[in-house]
Design a protein that fits this description.
The protein is an alpha/beta fold and 317 residues long. Helices cover 35% and strands 19% of the residues. It has three domains: 4-51, no CATH class; 66-232, Type I PLP-dependent aspartate aminotransferase-like (Major domain) (Aspartate Aminotransferase, domain 2); 242-316, no CATH class. The chain has ten helices and ten strands. The strands form two sheets. The protein has a seven-stranded mixed β-sheet, with helices on both faces. Strands 8-9-10 form a three-stranded antiparallel β-sheet. A hairpin with a 6-residue loop joins strand 9 and strand 10. The radius of gyration is 21 Å and the shape is globular. The protein starts with a helix and ends with a helix. The protein binds pyridoxal-5'-phosphate. Pyridoxal-5'-phosphate binds next to helix 4.
Length: 317
C-alpha cells in the first residue's frame, strides 16, 4: 500500500534527475547523498560569476554565505553567535584546537561515539602529547557523570556530538554538560553535523550560547559540498595558531591586488576585531576569515583561490 512519504518521494524525484534517484536510493544523509538539480545550476552560476566579476567575486560570495549564516542563526535561535565557513568541519576543528593551551592542559575529554573527523584527529594528536580521554557515550547520565569526574585543571576542552553518527541517538544531557564545563572554565565543542535540520535546537533555551558548534551543509541541509561552519560565541577570545601565511593581510592586499583599497575600506568599515586565517590543504585554496563585529554582529569570510601549495606547510605545522 502506498504511504504519504511515497507521494513525497515521487514529488521530489524530478528535482534529483541527474542523480537518478528514481532508480537509486540516495537519500541517506551520507557522503553519497544525492544533489538536487538546482545544485548544478548553482555551480554554473558560481563559474559564471567568477569569470565575469574576477576580483569582485568576493562580494557575491559574501552575500551567498550570509544567506547560509542567516539560516543557521534562525535554525539555532542564535542571533548573537558568529558563524565562520570552511570547506569541511575538520579544517575548522583543527584551527579551533590550535587555539587551546594543549601544553599546560593536554587533556581533551571526548566520547566513543564521535565521527572519524574528530576521533581520528584526537588520537593522532596523542603522538605529540595530547591526551584524549575517550569516555563511553552509550548512557547519557553515565557520560555526564564521567565528564564531571574527569574535569580538572589539565582539561583543555570537552568535544562530543549532539546526535551520534552511528546510532542516530540524541545526547540528552547537553545543557548539564555545558553547565559543568562553564563552571570548570572549559570550552565545549559540539559536533552537530547530524543535528542540523533534523532535530531542532534553540541554543538560547538549551543554555548553549557560550558553546562551539560544528555543522555541515552536505547532508540534511542540501547545501552541497564545502559549506561547513564553526559557530562560536560573540565574546570568544580564542586565537588560533593555525593561521596560514597571510600574517600581514593589509600589506598583501595593498601590494598584490588591484582591489586592495576597496577591500581595506570594507574591512575598516566592518570594525574588524579578529582575523582568523585558515590555510586549507585542498587544491591550493587559501581561505581568510574576516570576523567582524558590525551592528548586526555579522561574520564575513573572503575565500581567495590562490596558487599556493598550502598542504605542505599545513601538514608540517
Ligand atoms: C558526525 C559527523 N561529523 C563530521 C562529519 C564531516 O566531517 P568533515 O567535514 O571533516 O569531512 C560527518 C560526515 O560524515 C559526520 O557524520
Amino acid at each position: 500500500m502506498s504511504q504519504p512519504f511515497d507521494h513525497l518521494a515521487k514529488d521530489l524525484q524530478p528535482h534529483y534527475s541527474r542523480f537518478d534517484v528514481a532508480n537509486r536510493l540516495l537519500f541517506t544523509g551520507h557522503s553519497h547523498q544525492a544533489w538536487p538539480d538546482a545544485a548544478f545550476e548553482g555551480m554554473h552560476e558560481y563559474e559564471t560569476t567568477v569569470a565575469r566579476d574576477v576580483d569582485q567575486k568576493w562580494i557575491a560570495a559574501a552575500e551567498k554565505t550570509e544567506i547560509l549564516r542567516n539560516y543557521l542563526r534562525r535554525y539555532y535561535d542564535d542571533p548573537d553567535g558568529y558563524w565562520c565557513r570552511e570547506q569541511n568541519t575538520h579544517v575548522l576543528m583543527v584551527s579551533w584546537l590550535s587555539s587551546l593551551d594543549l601544553v599546560r592542559k593536554p587533556v581533551i575529554l571526548t566520547t566513543s561515539g564521535e565521527f572519524h573527523s574528530m576521533s581520528r584527529q584526537l588520537r593522532s594528536l596523542a603522538k605529540i602529547g595530547v591526551e584524549p580521554v575517550i569516555l563511553d557515550h552509550t548512557e547519557d547520565e553515565t557520560l555526564l557523570q564521567s565528564i564531571r569526574s574527569h574535569l580538572n585543571n589539565r582539561v583543555s576542552a570537552v568535544m562530543l556530538s549532539r546526535i551520534y553518527f552511528q546510532t542516530a541517538e540524541i545526547q540528552t544531557r547537553l545543557t548539564e554538560i555545558a553547565a559543568i564545563c562553564r563552571d570548570a572554565g572549559v570550552p565545549l565543542m559540539i559536533d552537530d553535523y547530524h543535528g542540523t535540520n533534523v532535530v531542532p535546537l534553540s541554543l538560547r533555551e538549551a543554555g548553549l550560547e557560550d558553546c562551539y558548534l560544528l555543522i555541515g551543509g552536505y547532508k540534511y541541509l542540501q547545501w552541497g559540498e564545502a559549506n561547513c561552519f564553526l559557530r562560536f560565541p560573540g565574546n570568544c577570545s580564542l586565537t588560533p595558531l593555525i593561521t596560514g601565511w597571510l600574517l600581514r593581510l593589509e600589506v598583501w592586499i595593498n601590494q598584490k591586488t588591484k582591489t586592495g583599497s576597496t577591500l581595506m575600506r570594507e574591512i575598516k568599515s566592518l570594525r574588524l576585531l579578529h582575523m582568523i586565517r585558515c590555510l586549507s590543504s585542498v587544491r591550493h585554496r587559501l581561505s581568510i576569515f574576516l570576523i567582524s563585529r558590525d551592528s548586526h554582529r555579522r561574520c564575513w569570510k573572503i575565500n581567495i583561490v590562490h596558487k599556493f601549495s598550502s598542504s605542505r606547510s599545513f601538514s608540517r605545522g
